[in-house]
Amino acid sequence: MFLSTRSAEIAPLLLPFAGIHVRFVHAIEELLQVFQEGDILMAHNTNQIVPKSILQKSALSVNVHAGPPEFPGRDPHHWAVYHAAAEYGVTAHLMEERVDAGAIVEVLRFPVEPTDSPISLLMKANKMALVCIVSLLEKIHGNQALVPINETWSARKTSRNDFLEKCDVSKVLNDQNEMKRRIKAFQAPGHQNLYFTRGIERVYLPTDLG
Description:
By secondary structure, this protein is an alpha/beta fold.
């Protein structure tokens, strides 16, 4: 069972794996209706949290996280740019109730280029995620156990509130270095993310600064 919004990209990858019956679902509500005891669950490109009842029924639950272990939580591609990460990538981990906390079974990385933006990192990671999914399927199809590897999650797990706090630049308008970091990391064409307050008014920065 795949919980993903990228079924059109994943489906062609399944052709070599004869004997594996796959069903795609896009929402937890649908997953709750169709998931059976002993099914295998793989999740990717979804912000939905799989409930404990599904994890307990599953023979194996794996999430493919578009972001390396150094950046667990929400919006990892933005934080990688903000912290000037040298590498980015994809993490496959066993799912548990806590988000991005299960044992890591595979990590793929690529170098971050000076010209990379959050969007370009996300696009590269999503392509690499497809490679990771094929690797996991090969192991599952070959009845190989997904064994935890020598990788650990960073203790710094970001939330949506962390992202929103960085979008308020009111206190750093005169700090050129910090403003450059936030514009590169959190501003994006077509999205009014960064703003400062003027009285009770929010003034948003132009969207083409990212």
